[in-house]
Specification:
41% helix, 7-stranded parallel beta sheet, 17% strand, 223 residues, alpha/beta, 7 strands
Length: 223
């Protein structure tokens, strides 16, 4: 299992998970291209671009610059606890769908034709174990991640016969600085490390996973 000789694009690459995926891919010998919304984004792991994934024209431009690629890891997204269902305002609901669904759709609109045109490649999205069922005060987040999971399955059915593998990982709690700060009393050893999750993501982008289509792979750690 290796990404040696492959070019992988990673969105949300400045975050804890995105950076973890980038390190794993780089360690496997991949050419790494990193995208994030932060200004003046740089990385020692590969070419980095600052881009707002909610801006379709900006996404189109950066993919034209990047050119051909083999694997797309859609890591951009976010989590936020919310109020009750009846207390959720449109602004909060839309924000969860913008960062988790709209960013993904903007990227896929540009990236999928590239992979179909070259006759193959891999796409890995990030759903959530928690979105397999509803929980109190998480409706907007879980609904947005459920949409990612259904989108993954639908896209897989559309392109699997064209040589493109589309799958998603479903993490539980990821061991990132922000999660440690938000839950300081938790047992971090139970969480999923970005490196371990990155290994699963890179496997799904490798030739070893060429027969895997439309899978939603739980990566729970010990939670």
């Amino acid at each position: 299992m290796s990404l040696a000789g492959k070019k992988i694009i990673i969105t949300g690459a400045a975050g804890g998970l995105g950076a973890g995926v980038a390190r794993v891919a780089y360690g496997q010998g991949a050419e790494v291209v990193l995208l994030d919304v932060i200004d003046d984004f740089t990385s020692e792991l590969g070419q980095a671009y600052s881009v707002d994934l909610l801006d379709p024209e900006a996404v189109q431009r950066v993919f034209e610059v990047i050119g051909d690629f083999d694997v797309l890891a859609n890591i951009a997204g976010g989590f936020d606890m919310g109020p009750s269902v009846d207390g959720t305002e449109d602004e909060f609901w839309q924000r969860m769908f913008d960062i988790n669904v709209t960013t993904l759709r903007r990227v896929l609109k540009v990236a999928v034709p590239v992979l179909v045109g070259r006759g193959g490649g891999g796409i890995i999205n990030v759903g959530a174990v928690g979105a397999l069922q509803g929980s109190a005060y998480m409706s907007a987040y879980q609904a947005s991640k459920a949409a990612v999971m259904r989108l993954t399955e639908s896209l897989s059915e559309e392109v699997k016969a064209l040589g493109v593998n589309v799958n998603a990982v479903l993490p539980s709690v990821i061991d990132t600085p922000s999660n440690r700060s938000a839950m300081p009393d938790a047992d971090f050893e139970l969480w999923v490390s970005p490196t371990d999750l990155g290994e699963v993501i890179c496997f799904l982008g490798s030739d070893a996973a060429k027969a895997v289509h439309g899978a939603l792979v739980p990566v729970r750690g010990l939670v």
